[in-house]
Amino acid sequence: MAAVGEQQLESFLDRFGLSQFRPGQRDVISAVMSGQDCLCVMPTGGGKSLCYQLPAIARQGLTLVVSPLIALMKDQVDALVASGIRAALINSTLSPEDQTDRLERMVRGEYDLMYVVPERFRSSRFVESVRAANLQLLAIDEAHCVSQWGHDFRPDYARLGAFRQRLGNPTTIALTATATDTVRRDIVELLKLQEPRIFITGFSRPNLHYEVQGPMSVRRKETALLEFLEKTPGCGIIYASSRKRCEEVAEIIRAGARRKAGVYHAGMLPNDRRDAQEAFMSGKTEIVVATTAFGMGIDKADVRFVIHYNLPGSLEGYYQEAGRAGRDGKPSHCLLFYSAADRYIHEFFIESAYPSRQIIEQVYDFLRGFTEDPIELTQQQIKEAIGLQIGAEGVGACEQLLEKVGVLERLERGQNLAGVRLKSDLPTLVDLLPSQAKLKRKVLRAVEKMVGDRRHEIVYFHPSDVVTAAEIDHSTFVHTLRELSALEAVDYIPPFRGRAIRMIQRDRAFADLDIDFETRESQRSAEYDKLELVINFATSNRCRQLEILNYFGETKGRPCGNCDNCGGRRPAAAHVPAVGPPPTAAIRMALSAIARGQSRFGKTIIAQMLCGSKSTKLSKFKLDRLTTFGLLAEIRQPEVCQLLDALVGVGLAEQIEVERFRPIIQLTDRGVDVMGGRAEVEESLRLPAELMDRLRGIQPATVKPTAPSAPAAKKPARPARPTPHNTSSATSPESPRNPPFSQFQKPRYIEPATHFNDADINSELALAAAEFSSPPPLSLPPPLSPLAPPSYHWTWRLLTAGFTSAECAAIRGLSSAAIFEHAQLAANAGLAVQAHWFLKPEVIAQLQAAIGSAQPDQALPLLAGLSAIRLEESQFFLKSQQCLGHG
Question: In terms of Cα–Cα distance, which of 58, 39, 72, 22 is closest to 139?
């Protein structure tokens, strides 16, 4: 066919309801029309689909479109057909007859576009049908799924390069909205593109206002969400990390904001998901709360806001999801709630996705010890049987890996066997049924024929075989057979609902399996790197748009002037950077506390020390005797954590993991200089204005004390600076520069209005600097193994992060009793465990009265409640366990 001229390309736009090309579209389409392979990186809303849809109708032949989601392809096909374009799809929602009919019509040239999922290429019949068709263009949408370094890697995508060769290397266009330079190279290599034209139209979205709120507690998120929705009209998408969280957030919106909110996640029935999507697309539902699968390719132009209720796992994912706002070019809001607890969830998921060599071997040995064929055990059952410390999905990762090396195969759910037993010697059981029960009689005849003379034993069969023989559909057969099982003579065992496993080789030693552990470790590390980059984005004080542009390799961008860090518009509840000089005294106090930690403690412990917390862990490590104890007692602990995060953000401190999942905080060289007064504090320190003002109030006595942070809120008392018993000996030449802990007096408490003067501050900083160079002897608990942290440690981390025991049980797939047992194990290991995790406030109050303690909550770790108090008080505590799960 003769080449289509540039002017002629415009003539096809009206078929799509368009009057002009968007930036970059014309160049991509021209390259495709000339037969060149292309990689098109175009932001969400940039019009990627037109880059293959227009060539499909502008010339003869088939365009085969590979797309990851059935819902996505259905929407696109429906829109194309409504415009009079010959388009269709083939997927599992069609009957075998319909699939065959569409394949035949495709071969006859009756379609311009055919949409399929990448798994369709597993069918040799499909591949041969495509080879028989007049294939002109292969379009691979969401092409980042090809790369194992992308944020949504899918193995079937990675095989498309080989299938492309089998199809004769047709002209190919790969399209994605998110791809780093590494992922772009991967796409070109794995798809075997030949000298491709690469088009990158830019990642800047000037109409989007990026904002981050946090760090914040789980409960604070609910309030912040409602505050945002109260000020922000229009429709929006809220992304949450789990199915359970989606349901909870939707209920919060319905009750607190009184706005229509739908839910979309993989746990819903297909019809319910479709209804939820259509209600949102049509405007019947204003807000949809969804997991990350929702929205991929959804073309709804008027989404006014996208909220990430939980931290996304990668910047690619965040950019793609946030980019679903404002596709009409109008101002829209992208809000991310940042909570440190979200990090722990992602770490748990990463560990489950990349289980250790030891765990993979355990799963292999367990499975090959079974003689049953197939093995019908759920992933949760295998996890519990072995006692693994990862999630059930981690067992699935092991199964996938073992399948890849050829020792087992995972059966599709449709391949699982059903069972039936006929417990009667009658020649036929059909006579037991009334003559009008024609369907039941038909099904029972088919079953009797299949069973033959094997009465009184369970006979396993594929339901599809009997369905074919009885000439009825599958659902009708299953429903009828369940009704027949009501007969005393008929037992029916439904097919296993999970993916059964068939062992292919049981005798191969695990060491002989061809598993590339080096690559797996690289992939696992890459996931942690992605997570770290998202956290850096959330805590950065630089322009949000620039952070995204730099991540994707655009180095010539300029500050957007619109995001929260650039001072753009924001709701009243947003994080507002302060303007003015930094709070030098408070910063130097915080740095001195980090120094006194001697690179042995994490941010939370340092914050507790600065706040003068009564935590038993501080007293255990004798941190309550340090001179830095209580220096910032007027500031709440979460706010001190914000200060420490800000110090990390400007390079005065750093967090490193000396062991997996146990980050400690320590000073940088510049932090040491600032602490000692040899360098100035960074003015780019990013903190909320209100907190900055309160920190500035921590000054010598000539400065008036700051007001309380909240009305009627009682401030914790500021501890006096501890002094040595013998100050003269502390300064004598014979005396050690760093006096032992035993030389310090127990801190006495004075009114919070009292402030340190210059001499106090300088004395404290000098002492901290001295001790920084000579660490005090602290006793630490035995380190946890970085390769296999105990299972209770995961639970403890979730509880510490603010998740309720019920939420922990849901996240970890454990019972409430198991969560409570994990808390006991954590307490035995010396970890701080709090009563309020499990008991209601009124129960804690009753316990306090019974035990006779004067310190609420923090003074009542569960270990003490179970073992260190008198027998009758232990019994009272145990009776109170009925409150488990109520937080």
Answer: 39
Q: What angle do CA 618, 621, 627 make, to 5 degrees?
A: 70
What span, in angstroms and rounded, lies between the C-alpha atoms of 844 and 81? Answer: 65
The DSSP call for residue 631 is T
Strand partners, 199: 40
pLDDT of amino acid 27: 92
b (16+ CB within 10 A) / e for 734-761:
eeeeebeeebbeebeeeebeebbeeeeb
Q: How far apart are CA 851 and CA 869, in angstroms?
A: 8
Could you give the CA distance from residue 648 to residue 353 in angstroms, rounded to a whole number?
29
Hey, what amino acid is at 773?
Answer: S
User: Which sign does the torsion angle of CA 58, 59, 60, 65 carry?
Assistant: negative
Report d(CA 186, CA 180) in Å as an integer.
10
Averaged pLDDT, groups of 10, the chain, 887 residues long: 62 87 90 93 82 93 88 82 93 85 94 92 89 94 80 78 90 88 88 91 88 82 92 94 89 91 84 86 92 68 94 88 89 91 81 91 93 85 88 90 92 74 91 89 90 88 78 81 88 80 91 90 84 86 88 82 78 44 85 86 88 84 84 84 82 71 78 85 71 74 34 40 33 31 27 36 47 37 43 77 74 76 78 77 66 46 40 40 35
Residues 179-205 pLDDT 10s: 788 888 889 999 999 999 999 887 888
The answer to whether the beta carbons of residues 768 and 736 sit under 8 Å apart is no
- Predicted TM-score (pTM) of the model is 0.58
Cα 207 from chain centre: 26
Phi, psi of 868 (to 5 degrees): -100, 5
pLDDT for the residue 866: 39
Residue 851 is predicted with a pLDDT of 53
**H or E stretch covering 248:** helix 243-252
Q: What share of the chain is helix, strand, coil (3-state, %, to 5)?
A: 45, 10, 40
> How do residues 236-273 score in pLDDT, each as one tens digit?
999 998 888 899 999 999 998 889 999 998 778 777 88
Phi, psi at residue 66, to the nearest 5°?
A: -100, 120
At 86, which helix (H) or strand (E)?
none
First to last CA, the chain: 71
- CB proximity list for 724: less than 8 A, separation 6 or greater: 730, 739, 743, 744, 745
Q: Please choose, from the candidates 500, 71, 498, 534, the residue with its C-alpha nearest in 3D space to the C-alpha of residue 265.
A: 71
φ, ψ of residue 200 in degrees (nearest 5): -125, 105
CA geometry: angle 503, 504, 508, nearest 5 deg: 100
pLDDT tens digit sequence for 162-179: 899 989 999 999 998 877
Contact 350, 794 (CB under 8 A): no
Structure tokens at 438: 């024609």
Can you point out the beta strands (E) in 79-207?
Answer: 87-90, 113-116, 135-140, 171-176, 197-200
CB of 108 within 8 A of CB of 85? no
Please give the Cα distance from 525 to 518 (Å, whole number): 11
Q: Where are the beta strands (DSSP E) in 627-714?
A: 653-659, 662-667
845: enclosing H helix or E strand: helix 841-851
Q: Whole-angstrom Cα distance, residue 198 to residue 512?
A: 42
Q: 455: which 2 tokens?
A: 């009465």
Asked if residues 765 and 592 have their Cβ atoms less than 8 Å apart, the reply is yes
Ramachandran category for residue 35: left, alpha or beta (phi over 0 → left; psi -120 to 50 → alpha): left
Rg of the chain in Å (alpha carbons): 32
Distance CA 843, CA 848 (A): 9
Task: Output the 3-class SS for 272-333.
Answer: HHHHHHHHHHHCCCCEEEECCCCCCCCCCCCEEEEEECCCCCCHHHHHHHHCCCCCCCCCEE
Record the tokens describing residue 795, joined without a space.
């639970």
Pick from 271, 299, 302: which is nearest to 287 by CA?
302
Q: What is the pLDDT of residue 295?
A: 60
